[in-house]
Amino acid sequence: VRVPWDKLSDIVRGVLLPLQGDGAALRVELRVEAESAEGLKPTTLEQKVMETLRQIGAEVLEEHKG
Predict the structure, then answer these.
(1) pLDDT of 66
(2) CA–CA separation, 31 and 60 (whole Å)
(3) Residue 62: exposure state from Cβ atoms within 10 A (0-12, 13-18, ≥19)
(4) Region class of 52: left (phi > 0), else alpha (psi between -120 and 50), else beta
(5) Cβ(21)–Cβ(29) below 8 Å
(6) Which of 7, 15, 18, 29 has minimal CB crowding within 10 Å?
(7) How far is CA 5 from the centre of its chain?
(8) 53 CB contacts (<8 Å, ≥6 apart)?
(9) What is the pLDDT of residues 25-66, one digit of tens each?
(10) Contact by Cβ (8 Å): 60, 53
(11) Quick one: which of 66, 8, 4 has its CA closest to 35?
């Protein structure tokens, strides 16, 4: 599915939690595409995005830069 970014919490609440409640083992893959006319700051990508992914134990399947 393609979900508006501001509706992710609705997906968790209305899709993932009910499935988990039924005992399902869940695996979620998330693809993020980000564009900015000014360009994305390397510090944002490394110090915020990638650091958060490391902290939560996410497995980065693929990474493309610019």
Answers:
(1) 66
(2) 10
(3) exposed
(4) alpha
(5) no
(6) 29
(7) 9
(8) 60
(9) 999 999 999 999 999 999 999 999 999 999 999 999 988 876
(10) yes
(11) 66
Q: What pLDDT does residue 63 have?
A: 87
Distance, CA of 42 to CA of 48 (rounded, Å): 10
pLDDT at 17 over 90: yes
CA separation, residue 16 to residues 7, 12, 52 (Å): 13, 5, 21
Q: Which residue has the tokens 């595409």?
A: 33
pLDDT value, residue 41: 92
Residue holding tokens 């988990």? Answer: 20
Task: Specify the pLDDT at position 29.
Answer: 94
CB neighbours of residue 59 within 10 Å: 6
- How many residues appear in the chain? 66
